[in-house]
TrEMBL record:
One GO CC term on file: membrane
Main location group: membrane
Annotated source species: Bradyrhizobium septentrionale
Compartment(s) where it occurs, according to its Swiss-Prot or TrEMBL record: Membrane
Name this protein carries in UniProt: DMT family transporter
Pfam family, one: EamA
Topological type in the membrane: Multi-pass membrane protein
SUPFAM superfamilies: Multidrug resistance efflux transporter EmrE
Annotated keywords: Membrane, Transmembrane, Transmembrane helix
Length: 304
């Protein structure tokens, strides 16, 4: 039995979170040698070459007229704003605090999908998403520093990223995913160049750091592809809760790379997140069975 567009989109979202978390693990390791601006710039340049080659191979470079389409421009602005505000936030407050605030994104996206697109969101899925958010708060345990201006930057990042993801849904499906990935890569690389000087300027990376950043570029490319396919395949309100899977990947990779062992509170929060995700998955399967006919195949994963 083939998967519905929403279930397929959820799987792509989980894969995107795995790729992004692996990239974050590499970033954490390399950050001891290079600043964030250098990391974004070097990784982005490598990723640009890879994705440009893929776009050329798929004959997607003729799509530059898409820059005149308003959802594409809105997505690019959301990407820039989300990247810069989130980087500014984590530079001033603990990463756990910024991450806790950022996990409100699925709630904001679900609200936006319901209000802007009129997507049906029942009370059971609202409760599942809220339970997942509670699980996130249990895991990250935000500190008691209070609500600072940097916290407002993290909240602004949530807003920018919600605009980015909602705009992705409005991009015509005829526009190749790989081209959108190319635009995203260029955007993030540009952001790295912008923040490079304020963060300390350029230092040549070692061969070890350069090798890790090349690998990170491949991971970030995979993540961009998967998340764009996810958002263009399933309903935003259905796939958004699977962003929480990033925390599960973070626990696994954090243990393997840095020896960070999760305590009981973290395990309890993870259990809540998994339960809410599985319940959302179950509700979507049940809704899919009740539909009289398929609503369409969704967007085929053309970029993968």
């Amino acid at each position: 039995m083939p998967l519905s567009p929403n279930l397929r989109g959820s799987l792509f979202m989980a894969a995107a979170m795995a790729s992004f978390t692996a990239n974050d693990t590499i970033t954490k390791a390399v950050a001891a040698e290079l600043n964030i601006g250098e990391i974004l710039l070097v990784r982005g340049l490598v990723a640009m070459v890879l994705v440009a080659a893929l776009a050329w191979y798929r004959d997607a470079l003729r799509s530059f007229a898409a820059l005149l389409i308003w959802p594409v421009g809105l997505r690019v602005m959301g990407e820039i704003g989300g990247t810069l505000t989130y980087l500014s936030a984590i530079a001033q407050i603990p990463l756990a605090n910024a991450s806790a605030i950022f996990q409100a994104l699925p709630l904001v996206i679900t609200l936006g999908a319901a209000l802007v697109f009129g997507e049906p969101v029942g009370w059971r899925r609202w409760l599942a998403i809220a339970a997942g958010f509670i699980g996130v708060m249990v895991i990250v345990r935000p500190g008691a520093e209070g609500f600072s201006q940097a916290s407002l930057l993290a909240l602004a990042s949530v807003g920018f990223c919600a605009v980015r993801d909602l705009a992705t849904r409005r991009i015509p499906k005829q526009l190749p995913t790989v081209f959108i990935t190319l635009l995203t890569t260029v955007t993030v690389t540009t952001a790295g160049a912008v923040v490079l000087v304020p963060l300390g300027g350029w230092r040549p990376p070692s061969s070890h750091a350069l090798g890790l950043l090349v690998f990170a570029a491949v991971l970030i490319l995979m993540g961009y592809q998967c998340i764009i396919v996810s958002l263009r395949t399933g309903d935003i309100s259905a796939v958004a809760p699977f962003r929480y899977s990033a925390l599960l990947w973070a626990m696994l990779l954090g243990y393997l790379a840095f020896g960070h062992k999760p305590d009981l509170q973290m395990l309890a929060g993870a259990a809540i997140i998994v339960a809410s995700g599985l319940y959302a998955f179950y509700r979507e399967r049940k809704r899919d069975k009740l539909r009289p006919a398929a609503t369409g195949p969704g967007l085929p994963p053309d970029g993968l």
